[in-house]
Write a structure and sequence with these properties.
Structural class: mainly alpha
Radius of gyration: 19 Å
Strand content: under 5%
Number of helices: 6
Distance between the termini: 60 Å
Shape: elongated
Number of strands: 0
């Protein structure tokens, strides 16, 4: 069971990574193509919070809790932990056969977060519905 849960965490982790990486160009393309969903407030807040959490982890030198949890479950199942470092570092190393210094990933995460903040300015999200309703109510009661 621990091995299955570790694999499930791996899949969730991969989905989060693909969401974080894929959403940014999708937001820029969607902004220029006038796709409404890329301005969805909840979508944009979730994206910002996820990459902000990842950047903060990296700045603090903390391994992602999902990686730690997955490795712990693998150990409980009698398997070797999959990653010595972080999830992204492992896969980039596997793909490129190059071992980057952890600072490279920190710079990458923080730069990605900065680009995401710029994206909030260039492709502005819509105001959440509760905010719109409150503004309408304030106008009608005044």
């Amino acid at each position: 069971m621990s091995s299955f849960l570790a694999d499930l965490i791996l899949v969730v982790h991969a989905v989060i990574v693909f969401f974080n990486i894929g959403a940014l160009p999708l937001i820029w393309i969607g902004g220029f193509m006038r796709w409404h969903f890329v301005r969805n407030f909840a979508f944009r807040v979730v994206h910002l919070l996820l990459i902000g959490f990842i950047a903060a982890e990296s700045l603090l030198g903390v391994i992602c809790p999902l990686t730690t949890w997955e490795n712990s479950l693998r150990s409980n199942a009698g398997l070797e932990p999959r990653y010595e470092g972080g999830f992204i570092a492992h896969w980039v190393h596997s793909i490129l056969f190059y071992d980057f210094d952890p600072r490279v990933f920190t710079i990458g995460y923080v730069s990605f977060f900065a680009l995401l903040l710029l994206t909030l300015y260039v492709v502005k999200p819509d105001a959440p519905q509760w905010w719109v309703r409150r503004r309408i109510e304030n106008r009608t009661s005044a």
